[in-house]
């Protein structure tokens, strides 16, 4: 494929990515669906014959491309969340109840269920565990249709507070996607250790102390430190020239995500968590400042560009051999993950002893929607490529075919249903709010008559 044709195809697809989101809003067809479909059609032509798309030969390229896409998405997610998290206040932790439930209950249940299913279907224990870890996280890249739209900035604190409590479904899925990509890493490492060091008794304690707890704490601390320092410079530096927030220079967001990720990884922590923690910390410094919106817009555009090329390459790969090892077991895993395991695990997590009032409270319909929309995507490809660098068995064609099919099923099923479901929930929420307003007005009128 000549360089000229590469530029032509990339340009046309980029035009589509710019135009289609607004055109397709509310339709049962999404931009990721069209990009993957376009890539599949390109893969059926002779154009990309000389493109090296094999997952085994291009593992490092796949790993770094998906890694970059995920960290950019995590920065955007962290900046977009309006609801504050004050680590010193228990009441603030409670408002994040859906996120903790999805992370602490739904994610381990999903990993265990997928691993057991893979093992029952004949996969080796380490391969089955990796499959569970890879397919567990809700993807921050492809879940944009069910996530919060962006940072709400206002001079009126009450306006911001009302926005933070407006959509519990979007908040739950956004906060989950921001955190679980980093928290899937310990289980990926567990699969690697199981494949390379054998019995759990030989490495289990070390895994809990370091991979599960130590690296998580380091990643969060590194991100908070970078976010705090950058926010102090951007908003409150003694030298006015350094206060980039005042002149609205949004590229600091890109600098922040690379710095946080680098510091987190150099410190031996989880870089994904560092990026999300950096964004949350930076946002908390001046929560209502319009600069957050400027930063988010730059990150969002960069994410869209990266997602374009990743999905296009995935689509081409699907018709150029990625699915050649597909079998009935792959279909069973893909259908079970999207249609049964994730929804059931998340429902259990959200329903048991759930809050009944205040932020973090979901109605029954909202719990169903939150449980269902566990989008699988780019992060799964990253983890699979990462694990394949250490263990030869993790480079198997069956694993790649299974994960690729699961992503396609998720993109199609969740993409087709996200618009109608979220619109219906928003309509019901508006009706309920209007009903509450009418009831409050009637109550005030009755009190007025009583006073007279």
UniProtKB/TrEMBL annotation:
Q: How would you describe this protein's topology in the membrane?
A: Multi-pass membrane protein
Specify whether Ribonucleoprotein is a keyword of the entry.
no
Transmembrane annotation, as ranges: 61-81, 102-135, 183-200, 212-231, 251-284, 305-323, 329-352, 368-386, 398-419
> Which parts of this chain are annotated as the region Disordered?
432-452
Tell me which GO cellular component terms the UniProt record holds: plasma membrane
Output the superkingdom of the source species: Bacteria
Subcellular location field: Cell membrane
Stretches assigned to the Cation/H+ exchanger transmembrane domain: 16-422
Please name the Pfam families in this protein's record. Na_H_Exchanger (PF00999)
- Gene Ontology biological process: proton transmembrane transport
Q: Which UniProt keywords apply?
A: Antiport, Ion transport, Membrane, Transmembrane, Transmembrane helix, Transport
Please give the InterPro entries that the UniProt record associates with this protein: Cation/H_exchanger_TM
GO terms (molecular function) for this protein are: antiporter activity
Q: Chief location of this protein? A: membrane
The Basic and acidic residues compositionally biased stretches are 443-452
**Designated name of the protein:** NhaP-type Na+/H+ or K+/H+ antiporter
């Amino acid at each position: 494929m000549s360089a000229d044709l590469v530029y032509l195809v990339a340009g046309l697809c980029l035009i589509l990515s710019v135009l289609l989101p607004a055109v397709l809003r509310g339709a049962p067809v999404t931009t990721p669906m069209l990009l993957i479909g376009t890539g599949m059609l390109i893969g059926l032509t002779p154009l990309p014959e000389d493109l090296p798309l094999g997952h085994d030969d291009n593992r490092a390229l796949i790993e770094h491309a998906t890694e970059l896409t995920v960290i950019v998405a995590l920065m955007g997610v962290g900046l977009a969340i309006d609801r504050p998290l004050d680590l010193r206040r228990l009441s603030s932790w409670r408002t994040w109840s859906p996120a903790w439930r999805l992370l602490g209950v739904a994610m381990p249940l999903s990993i265990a269920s997928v691993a057991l299913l893979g093992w029952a279907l004949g996969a080796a224990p380490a391969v089955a565990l990796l499959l569970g870890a890879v397919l567990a996280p809700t993807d921050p890249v492809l879940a944009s249709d069910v996530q919060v739209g962006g940072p709400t900035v206002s001079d009126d604190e009450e306006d911001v507070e009302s926005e933070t409590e407006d959509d519990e479904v979007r908040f739950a899925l956004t906060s989950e996607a921001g955190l679980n990509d980093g928290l899937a890493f310990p289980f990926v490492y567990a699969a690697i250790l199981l494949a390379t060091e054998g019995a759990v008794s030989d490495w289990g304690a070390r895994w809990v102390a370091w991979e599960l707890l130590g690296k998580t704490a380091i990643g969060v601390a590194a991100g908070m430190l970078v976010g705090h320092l950058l926010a102090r410079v951007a908003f409150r530096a003694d030298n006015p020239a350094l206060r980039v927030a005042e002149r609205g220079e949004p590229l600091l967001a890109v600098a922040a995500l690379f710095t946080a990720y680098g510091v987190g990884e150099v410190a031996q922590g989880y870089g994904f968590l560092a990026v999300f923690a950096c964004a949350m910390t930076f946002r908390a410094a001046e929560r209502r400042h319009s600069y957050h919106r400027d930063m988010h817009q730059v990150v969002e555009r960069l994410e869209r560009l990266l997602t374009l090329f990743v999905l296009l390459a995935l689509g081409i790969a699907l018709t150029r051999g990625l699915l050649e090892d597909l079998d009935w077991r792959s279909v069973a895993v893909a259908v079970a993950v999207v249609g049964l395991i994730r929804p059931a695990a998340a429902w259990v997590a959200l329903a048991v002893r759930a809050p009944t009032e205040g932020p973090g409270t979901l109605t029954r319909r909202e719990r169903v929607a939150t449980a269902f929309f566990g989008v699988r995507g780019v992060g799964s490809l990253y983890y699979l490529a990462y694990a394949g660098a250490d263990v030869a068995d993790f480079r198997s064609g069956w694993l790649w075919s299974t994960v690729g099919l699961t992503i396609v099923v998720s993109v199609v099923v969740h993409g087709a249903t996200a618009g109608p479901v979220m619109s219906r929930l928003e309509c019901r929420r508006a009706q309920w709010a209007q009903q509450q307003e009418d009831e409050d007005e009637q109550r005030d009128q009755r009190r007025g008559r009583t006073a007279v």
